[in-house]
Amino acid sequence: MPTAQTSLIEKFFDFLYENQEGYICIATSDAKMPKETFKQAFFKWPIQHAEMIQFVEASALRRNVWFGVNLLDRPERKKQFCLPTNLVWADLDECHPSKVEPTPSITIESSPNRFQAIWRLNEIHPPEIVENFSKRIAYKYHTYGADPSGWDLTQLLRIPFTMNFKYEEAPEVVVTEALDDKLGVELFQTLPETETDTDIDIAELPNLEELPTVEAILGKHTLALGRAGFFVTYEADLDMKDDWSRVMWKLINICLESNLTPEETFAVMLPAKCNKYARDGRPDSFLWRDIKKAGAAQNRLAGITSGLVLGTPSMPLTLPNIYDGRSNSETFIDEYRQWGTLATDAIPEYHEIAAAILLSAVLAENIKLGTSYGEVVPNLWALILGDSTLTRKTTAMRMAMDMLHELDDEAILATDGSAEGLLTGLSNRPGRVSIYFRDEVAGFFRSINKKDYLAGMPDLLTQLYDVPPTISRILRKETIRISKPVFIFFGGGIKDRVYQEVSEEYILSGFLPRFLVVTGDADVTRIRTTGPPTTAIERERKRIATLLADIKEQYSRRATMVIAGQTIDVPAKTDAFLTTEAWEHYGAIEMKMAQAASESPYSALALPTFERLSRSLLKLAVLLCAVREEPKANTIQVEKTDVIAASRFIQNWGKHTVDLVMNSGTSIVQRQIQRILGTIRKNPGVNRSRVMQWYHLSKREADEIFNTLEDRGEIRILRKGRGQQLWAEE
């Protein structure tokens, strides 16, 4: 083939795929025996770009040559392996491109007066979305001669600048028009939808013998299904008066939203009590069709929301009442909060938890508490989360860290973010407090999730929390050894982004439950204008800083220890003891927390979370005691009142920890959908238009969100004339 034609073929593929990656299917056949000689070859784009062009050039000398429109994640031309794309396609056949709207990005004349068309979108979309658009075009222009079957994801189109050997004269396949502009998705959304029973190919039905058991599937997805209220509905008995279709559709959507595959959903729904098709003796293909339709609807929602919607917990996890309200004595945390609220308009709870971190940073290296399960060091971890800048997350955190810097300018650990960088910093501070301070923790979690070299970071940090005697890590050039690290993690970030990045694995592993969490929502009415510093604020800050310095000095005793043959100074420990009453009160709280967790429908998540909240309460009680009294003979005595005071803060902060646990893994838009549902619950019968105005929703976004909530059975929509009223289902 001439070099000029080779160059044109290269430009054609570059035009379509640009910097995307995946496998391209190149199919060939001999015109005389097309079925018998049909072959497929796969090339990795763009790595095998040159080999592919060479293969096309050689094949096109005597054979028909096609390409698969969609890139694949493996060398196999099947729907399930198609990657997200920005291409829409149609085999227009006898339909002239001038009749088609929107105008194709590239028009190919595959033979005289027969055409193919491809449209380039300005964004990448899930394969099901673009397949749906391709189908709409095929059906809309079918009466003009378009092939109604040329819309599926595995569609093959002829490659331009090759020959069509279907005809004796072997005409050249040519590009008749190519436009640089990329199109917005809204141009395709206005095309009429098509829904026919032929959408679901019976041959696609899963093989029942190859499906896992229902018990295995439900066991695998228990947490997600339980949070979505699946089991109550799944196990309910129905009579003929019930709306079987609504119940079945709700369960199908819950399964798919809880990350069950269509095949797993099929296996679970076949024996379901609400399977109306089994009740009526109709084929299983009807159930499979509904599952595929539900999946397509959810993928349309995914196209505008960046993620599928998980079910909203039907039974919220709640923290038991552990504070009896009998102690109202003021603590250091209360004093710090009062100063903080004078100095800034940050949410008061932010100052509370910052004060707790300050106490831990000043005291943790010098105090230990003996328990039945070993020695406890009162190091705390905390997360401050908020909606936006208006919550003043960073302001509250910086105020505390600035004060700590005046007391110990080496306590805030400098690190490059890697596990090795962190360990290196800790190895230089044996037995000393070291704070890992991150004011945008969502990015940190995202890095852990996506970067292989950070994969073990949560496990490492979890180890450090428990103040092990030693940790060793073998690197390529050295071995790092850390002795008794008193490690504190203090992080902040945008609430929705953090919720999106953390998964249930963070909870089950015990990493996330080790954090005390405070969240806040932006409130414009709380904003104060910026002004000059006042004498009262400066005086109170100085008093608190002096108090912390005095406390630090009271507990800053030194001792010597031998490490690697060298004698060094390390902090000496003050022993904390609980009175009998204090132990009994703490034990009652601990049992109440454990019982509430074990009886919760989310016990797998609640047990590690509530157990660690109990441990944090004990640590906080020790810190409050250390502020309240000076050590005597290197000991302090923790009273019942200290435990009660600590329980007051844990009761208040604990609800934020629970909220984080119950929303782990949810995206920003998932959270918005939950807020919209909450708005409908608070405003029964609210007009659809009002909700759209409040949340700035487009018509398409509103359609997908309200339809999803209706499919879940969480709202009902009453249509009156041209308007709609929204009601939450009880």
Automatic annotation (TrEMBL):
Top-level taxon of origin: Bacteria
Residue intervals of the RepB-like DNA primase domain: 103-166
Record InterPro entries: DUF3987 (IPR025048), RepB-like_DNA_primase_dom (IPR039459)
The name this protein goes by in its record: RepB-like DNA primase domain-containing protein
